[in-house]
């Protein structure tokens, strides 16, 4: 009998006493299942995931290279786009390699510390991506509603401050995740029904009290998604109001076209993310393999599709 399995037989008062004591149970390694219920098809699933990861690497490196090498692209829109590309590279590289290893070569085990690091990077950089999308919505709002003041409002100093704020916010809000997880004890099972380390999937494995972890995780998700979606919605409401006042259908079409790529990126990021969040917390009748597939695609689709969307929709990038 292993030490972890021994603790599964302890009574609840003894577990609480262990948690409050200075002696700690050695942290376990976790076992990543992959896509539960689709074990026989996992080799086929690696094909689209591998393609998404390859697209993310090639596309975002290309975007960064083009913006870095072309002085004419040192404008707010493209600086925010370079931030988005850098975040997408980290986000995809935090998820895909281990997920592909689990699905393709059955490298299911992941060390506890590495699991927490992966979980932190995934959630922190997802939060940063949401923040950059808000900044890009602000850029479109200023460009369309206050075009004469665009360069004075969004000068390089302001853009640098926005980028730093997005980075700090993503790190500070998510740092409590691994800190709170380290206080938990895992004494029943260490099998994670995902292809990567996801916060709530780890929390559900603990046999100690998890109320604080669950409450903080839900609060962060609601605040990040809620406030960012609200800010983007308000920005585009003002943009729509301003565009409808523009005389001439051609001018209105040009204004809408300016925002088209950003709207596509917003939909690709938020729609799967919100659906995954709802199924995780409230969709108890949704098959688990459907939720895991959605959660994995949610992390790989935006990094893969964002460069394609901006490459097709943005003339300067396309050229």
Measured between the Cα atoms of the first and last residue, the distance is: 64 Å
What are the segments in which pLDDT stays under 50 over at least 5 consecutive residues? 1-11, 17-24
How many structural domains in the coordinates? 1
**Helicity range:** over 70%
Structural category is: mainly alpha
Mean model confidence by pLDDT? 82
Gist of the model:
The protein has 319 residues and is mostly helical. The protein contains 13 helices and three strands. The chain has one domain (3-8, 26-318): Rhodopsin 7-helix transmembrane proteins (Rhopdopsin 7-helix transmembrane proteins), CATH 1.20.1070.10.
List the helices and strands and how they pair.
Blueprint lengths: L2 H5 L4 H9 L9 E3 L9 H28 L6 H30 L3 E2 L1 H34 L4 H4 L2 H19 L1 H6 L9 E2 L6 H5 L7 H34 L4 H33 L6 H26 L1 H4 L1
Parallel strand pairs: 1-3
Antiparallel strand pairs: 1-2
Helix pairs in contact: 3-4, 3-12, 4-5, 4-12, 5-7, 5-10, 5-11, 10-11, 11-12
Please give a structural write-up.
The chain is mostly helical and 319 residues long. The chain contains 13 helices and three strands, in the order H-H-E-H-H-E-H-H-H-H-E-H-H-H-H-H. It has helices spanning 3-7, 12-20, 42-69, 76-105, 112-145, 150-153, 156-174, 176-181, 199-203, 211-244, 249-281, 288-313, 315-318; strands spanning 30-32, 109-110, 191-192. The protein has a three-stranded mixed β-sheet. Helix 3 (42-69) packs antiparallel against helix 4 and helix 3 (42-69) packs parallel to helix 12 (288-313). The N and C termini lie far apart (64 Å).
């Amino acid at each position: 009998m292993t030490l972890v399995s021994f603790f599964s037989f302890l009574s609840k008062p003894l577990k609480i006493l262990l948690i409050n004591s200075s002696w700690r149970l050695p942290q376990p390694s976790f076992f990543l299942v992959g896509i539960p219920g689709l074990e026989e098809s996992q080799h086929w699933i690696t094909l689209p995931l591998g393609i998404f990861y390859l697209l993310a690497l090639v596309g975002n490196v290309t975007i960064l290279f083009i913006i870095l090498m072309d002085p004419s692209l040192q404008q707010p829109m493209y600086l925010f786009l370079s931030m988005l590309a850098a975040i997408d590279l980290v986000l995809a590289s935090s998820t895909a390699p281990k997920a592909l290893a689990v699905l393709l070569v059955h490298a299911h085990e992941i060390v506890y510390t590495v699991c927490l690091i992966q979980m932190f990077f995934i959630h922190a950089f997802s939060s940063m991506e949401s923040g950059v999308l808000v900044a890009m919505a602000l850029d479109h709002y200023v460009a369309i509603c206050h075009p004469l003041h665009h360069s004075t409002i969004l000068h390089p100093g302001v853009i640098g401050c926005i980028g730093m704020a997005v980075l700090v916010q993503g790190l500070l809000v998510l740092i409590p995740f691994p800190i709170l997880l380290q206080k938990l004890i895992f004494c029943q099972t260490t099998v994670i029904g995902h292809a990567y380390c996801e916060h709530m999937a780890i929390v559900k494995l603990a046999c100690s009290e998890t109320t604080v972890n669950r409450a903080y995780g839900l609060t962060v998700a609601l605040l990040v998604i809620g406030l960012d979606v609200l800010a983007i919605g308000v920005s585009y409401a003002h943009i729509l109001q301003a565009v409808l006042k523009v005389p001439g259908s051609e001018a209105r079409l040009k204004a809408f076209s300016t925002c088209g790529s950003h709207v596509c990126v917003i939909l690709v990021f938020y729609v799967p993310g919100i659906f995954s969040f709802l199924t995780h917390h409230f969709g108890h009748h949704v098959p688990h393999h459907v939720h895991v597939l959605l959660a994995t695609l949610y992390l790989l689709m935006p990094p893969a599709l964002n460069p394609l969307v901006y490459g097709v929709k943005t003339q300067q990038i396309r050229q």
